[in-house]
Amino acid sequence: VQTRAPPHTLICAAHSQRVSTGPPHTHMPVIRQLTMPKDANALGTIFGGVILAQIDQAAAIEAHRHHVGRVVTVAMDRVEFKQPVLIGDLVSYFTTTRKVGRTSVAIDVNVWAQRQFAESGDFIPVTDACVTMVAVDEDCKPLPLNRPQKQG
């Protein structure tokens, strides 16, 4: 029997919009990572900074859908650590573009963990974040995004 994660909702305070992300099996994660002991604290849980670094990378990957060139993180408006990530968890990072501006992209990142050593192997939501990325030139000055947006 395959266990599927329940749908969940993220509210990004910076953008005041509700994001329905659905279960992780409905789309592919941007990053998947098997957590290892080197990333854990004395309690056997993964350091929050390790998760933040992967959130930053996942947001950058999503931002590159809107810009060819350099992008930098200018804000993490909200990060919520919901559950601990354990050694051996398979962690998946899902991204959704929330808002596209002239030079910036607001991105929601939803992090799910599959408990590899649990009998059920359930996916659980562990962290949500709202990240703003900005396109920049060589001098780190903002640039207009250079990929045209599809009309919906």
From TrEMBL:
Entry's Gene Ontology cellular component terms: cytosol
Single Gene Ontology BP annotation: acyl-CoA metabolic process
Record's keyword terms, sorted: Hydrolase
Residues of the HotDog ACOT-type domain: 25-139
InterPro entries: Cytosol_ACT (IPR040170), HOTDOG_ACOT (IPR033120), HotDog_dom_sf (IPR029069), Thioestr_dom (IPR006683)
CDD domains in UniProt: BFIT_BACH (cd03442)
Keyword Hydrolase set for record: yes
Cited Gene3D superfamilies: Hotdog Thioesterase (3.10.129.10)
Keyword Heme belongs to the record: no
Gene Ontology molecular function, alphabetical: long-chain fatty acyl-CoA hydrolase activity
The protein's name in its UniProt record: HotDog ACOT-type domain-containing protein
Source organism of the structure: marine metagenome
UniProt lineage: unclassified sequences, metagenomes, ecological metagenomes
